[in-house]
Amino acid sequence: DPEWHTLDAHEVEQVQATWKAVSHDEVEILYTVFKAHPDIMAKFPKFAGKDLEAIKDTADFAVHASRIIGFFGEYVTLLGSSGNQAAIRTLLHDLGVFHKTRGITKAQFGEFRETMTAYLKGHNKWNADISHSWDDAFDKAFSVIFEVLES
Fold first, then answer.
1. Fewest beta carbons within 10 Å, which of 20, 110, 125, 141?
2. 64 is in an annotated binding site
3. Where does heme b bind?
4. How many CA atoms are closer than 13 Å to the CA of 65, on its beta-carbon side?
């Protein structure tokens, strides 16, 4: 599995530090993703066809944002230990299965990645080294998720 590797300590530190800076921005992150990619929002039965501006400040939106972005935070937290690799793989596999049943595409995961990276860049000091660390973190996650989507 060429993409499956344990990030080194430096990469983990960078990913976790930059994540920490935005980890409580759940609503804003999900809003940013939906605003940039209405096709992703359309996959959420609770939100499909609704006005994003009207739902952004609702409890339903906050709960969903907390779940989605919280999952991502769990992944980032688990990155720090080689003993967590099986748990990470299981978490990502289950995410892939869930999203496959909802018809989520690799392209939509790519859109999420693009928007999340832009959000992270906008809320952190950013450089090529941090960018590389996040690329590795996304590649690791997507290697498992895409394996499921393609099965």
1. 125
2. yes
3. 64, 99
4. 22
Its pTM stands at: 0.88
Q: How far is CA 151 from CA 35, 89, 126, in A?
A: 30, 16, 36
How far is the C-alpha of 92 from the C-alpha of 69, rounded, in Å? 14
Beta carbons of 82 and 130 less than 8 angstroms apart: no
Write down the residue that tokens 């720090």 correspond to. Answer: 80
* pLDDT tens-digit profile, the chain (151 residues): 445 567 889 999 999 999 999 999 999 999 999 999 999 999 988 999 999 999 999 999 999 999 988 888 999 999 978 788 888 999 999 999 999 988 889 999 999 999 999 999 999 999 999 999 999 999 999 998 999 999 9
Q: How far apart are CA 17 and CA 99, in angstroms?
A: 28
CATH numbers and ranges of domains, the chain: 9-149 (1.10.490.10)
Q: Max Cα separation, the chain?
A: 44
Q: Considering only CA atoms, which of 104, 88, 110, 121 is closest in space to residue 5? A: 88
